[in-house]
Amino acid sequence: MIKFIIMVAETLRYPIGKFNPPEQITEEDISKWIAIIESLPLKMRESVNGLTSEQLESPYREGGWTIRQVVHHMADSHMNAYIRFKLALTEDNPTIKPYLEEKWAEQIEARHGQIEMSLRILEALHHRWTVVLSNIYSTDWKRTYYHPENKKITSLEHALGLYAWHSQHHLAHILNYRVGKGW
Description:
Blueprint (H helix, E strand, L loop, with lengths): L1 H12 L13 H22 L4 H4 L10 H24 L10 H4 L3 H5 L2 H20 L9 E4 L4 E4 H26 L2
């Protein structure tokens, strides 16, 4: 019984599983991931379409963020990701600035702000990000940045896979919750 409860909690937290990149990232992987980044804004908008303010205040899982916070988190996270990509493309292995996403999600606009502002940010940001991603030279996918918090060097190809996964991960939180609630 305890194992089942742990499995259910893990499924709610990671509805598409944890990020597990392929050992060798191919051009096909990169193309697929760019398409996911490009399509996220429309899918995110569709996932929250018609939700009431009360429904947006619902946490997608016990102890999790509200749907409103997830939408705002996506804008926050992907703005940081875009900047990380630009830094890695213009500097040699730059050290990126981590941020405390949990604290960002507790700020006033993330807790109570209209989701439309973050949906618009995602639309403009992902359009611009897709232009950058679609024009990266094949050799530049190996460019890196250094994350001082986890002390890891990350290649752009790996980061692209991570943010494509991140897009689908939080989209699944919202969609699974809506289905479970019959919304």
